[in-house]
Design goal:
Peroxisomal Thiolase, Chain A, domain 1; ten-stranded mixed sheet; 11 helices
């Protein structure tokens, strides 16, 4: 088997719910990052063997295989196939992992993997009535986030909101409000510093027709004291607030993966090799700790330990959820986690976040000269995904 390598990646700035990107269709966001990636990597789209894109919603303009639609909208040849992956928050990381397996087995030499989400444009939906001309009222369900049209057989404790699940994790791990607000403020400060120092400049591409050049949720002046003034969002006396939870977001990300021979074809060395993959399941109401076991699996499959890691990217769905994962990794130096900020500050467009983590991880590994890095994220309905990267130079 050949190795699978990450060569390049770009993303849009992430927009806030109802914000700067709310007027852009998700399929157009996806098409834009495909076009930008081809330009950025000097890639001939006709040479791409497949496009794998993640999307969590797929109930509106991202329906009917947004990966294929994006390639067509990007003007890529109709000979380039495309598929769409749905593992909720892990969708684009799953796309990356599937792409890497495809390359390793020799079924493809070049695959573009990524993801997209427009939480702003997620539609309301309703079930079909059992018969025509129903006399009763109909219920519209928001598809922006969380459970909807729940199967009555599903155990009720599993179907609580993500916020309530996080409150349960905070109780279980003894994570108080002050710790969560401190963690959230850290994310904003690190992200703002990274933007100011140019870390994001070479791989974040502006969306045509918009003015957004930086991640819209970012608040450089955020402090724990300011966050402490926010009301709890899910319980009257809870600890999870809009300030220590990732914001609803819009955005897209695309990565170029290929075999070792792609380096000669595009005239550039890869950023990293996909060295280990891990997936794990937990109870749905404990979704936030899904990355704990997934990371251990990925490390084992890569043949390394926690002490080998130089950088870690952990998706910050909630501050309490992230802190719970860190508590589950006592071997890990928390100082190497999310050193350029995380989703609490940058945003969390569900289908795009995993690819963002991988791209950001590889670039920070190169900046630091680290050989090994880990990216992981939690997934609604109780899963976790992780990937280990090995630097190639």
């Amino acid at each position: 088997m050949t190795g699978a390598f990450l060569y390049d990646g770009v993303r849009t700035p992430f927009g806030r719910y109802g914000g700067a990107l709310a007027g852009v269709r998700p399929d157009d966001l996806a098409a834009h990052v495909l076009q930008a990636l081809a330009e950025h990597a000097e890639l001939d789209p006709a040479t791409v063997d497949d496009v794998l894109f993640g999307a969590a919603n797929q109930a509106g303009e991202d329906n009917r295989n947004v990966g294929r639609m994006a390639a067509l909208l990007a003007g890529w040849p109709t000979s380039v196939p495309g598929s769409t992956v749905n593992r909720l928050c892990g969708s684009s990381l799953d796309a990356v992992l599937q792409a890497s397996r495809t390359i390793e087995t020799g079924d493809a030499e070049i695959v573009v993997a990524g993801g997209v989400e427009s939480m702003s444009r997620a539609p309301w939906v309703m079930t079909k009535p059992p018969k025509g001309f129903p006399a009763a009222d109909a219920t519209l369900h928001s598809t922006t986030l969380g459970w909807r049209m729940v199967n009555p057989v599903m155990p009720a404790p599993w179907t609580v909101s993500l916020g309530e699940s996080t409150e349960l994790l905070a109780e279980r791990f003894g994570i108080d409000r002050a710790e969560q607000d401190e963690f959230a403020a850290r994310s904003h400060h690190l992200a703002a510093t990274a933007w100011d120092k140019g870390f994001y400049d070479d791989h974040v591409v502006q969306v045509p027709g918009t003015d957004l050049v930086r991640d819209e949720p970012l608040r450089p002046d955020t402090t724990p004291a300011k966050l402490a003034g926010l009301r709890p969002s899910f319980r009257e006396t809870g600890t999870v607030t809009a300030g220590n939870a990732s914001p609803l977001s819009d955005g897209a990300c695309a990565l170029l993966l290929g075999d070792e021979g792609l380096a000669d074809r595009i005239g550039r060395a890869p950023l990293a090799r996909i060295a280990g993959r891990g997936a794990a399941g937990v109870d749905p109401d404990e979704f936030g700790i899904g990355p704990v076991q997934a990371a251990r699996i990925a490390l084992r499959r890569a043949g390394i330990g926690w002490d080998d890691l130089g950088v870690v990217e952990l998706n910050e769905a909630f501050a309490a959820q992230s802190l719970a994962c860190l508590a589950g990794w006592p071997e890990l130096d928390a100082g190497i986690v999310n050193v350029n900020g995380g989703a609490l500050a940058l945003g969390h467009p569900l289908g795009a976040s995993g690819a963002r983590l991988v791209n950001q991880l590889a670039r920070e590994m190169r900046r630091r000269g680290s050989r090994w890095g880990l990216a992981a994220l939690c997934i609604g309905v109780g899963q976790g995904l992780a990937v280990v990267l090995e630097a190639t130079s």
